[in-house]
């Protein structure tokens, strides 16, 4: 019972973070790039591929949802103190994606690019989240995705 409550609370927290990212996503979709936007100084080939595949997506609604998922993930991971290891996040992200109706196979090339990036930064290898710095480092994976698709 306690695990079910924790799962529900975690899912609600992720959804709130995604909702908070909504205004950022609306601004992102409805503005033209300008000199005030943060630009990644050094982008990896994997992130460059994510950016290129994202730019091929024609639907602004889908782009907004992707942005919200990345922003919400980064904000949640920065704030979450109960997650003990990185491998606990993927099931949460999967439930949130399902709740929003996102299908990973909708944009196969984009999904593959994100997967390649995640593997390149070690997302697929579980790591302990013992300190705030560990959580920030893990959250940075998603923050870098956010920056790549701006």
Give an overview of the whole structure.
The protein has 150 residues and is mainly alpha-helical. The chain has one domain. It has helices at 2-29, 45-55, 60-79, 89-99, 108-120, 132-149. It starts with a helix and ends with a helix.
- CA-based gyration radius: 15 Å
Could you give a short account of the major beta sheet? Answer: none
Oligomerization: single chain
**How do the SSEs run, as a string of H and E?**
HHHHHH
| Helix percentage | 55-70%
- Principal-axes geometry comes out as globular
Strand percentage, roughly?
A: under 5%
Structural class: mainly alpha
Tally of helical segments: 6
Termini gap: 41 Å
Number of domains: 1
Q: What is the residue-mean pLDDT, rounded to a whole number?
A: 80
The number of E-state strands comes to 0
Low-confidence stretches: 4-9, 11-20, 22-40
Question: What distinguishing features does this structure have?
Answer:
150 residues, 67% helix, 6 helices, mainly alpha, single chain, globular, 0% strand
């Amino acid at each position: 019972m306690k695990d079910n409550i924790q799962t529900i609370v975690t899912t609600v927290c992720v959804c709130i973070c995604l909702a908070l990212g909504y205004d950022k996503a609306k601004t992102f979709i409805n503005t033209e790039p300008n000199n005030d936007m943060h630009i990644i100084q050094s982008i990896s080939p994997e992130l460059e591929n994510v950016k290129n595949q994202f730019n091929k997506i024609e639907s602004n609604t889908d782009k907004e949802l992707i942005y919200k998922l990345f922003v919400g993930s980064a904000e949640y991971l920065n704030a979450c103190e109960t997650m003990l290891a990185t491998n606990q996040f993927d099931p949460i992200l999967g439930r949130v994606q399902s709740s929003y109706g996102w299908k990973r196979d909708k944009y196969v090339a984009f999904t593959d690019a994100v997967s390649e990036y995640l593997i390149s930064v070690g997302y697929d290898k579980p790591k302990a989240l013992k300190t705030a710095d560990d959580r920030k480092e893990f959250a940075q994976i998603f923050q870098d995705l956010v920056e790549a698709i701006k």
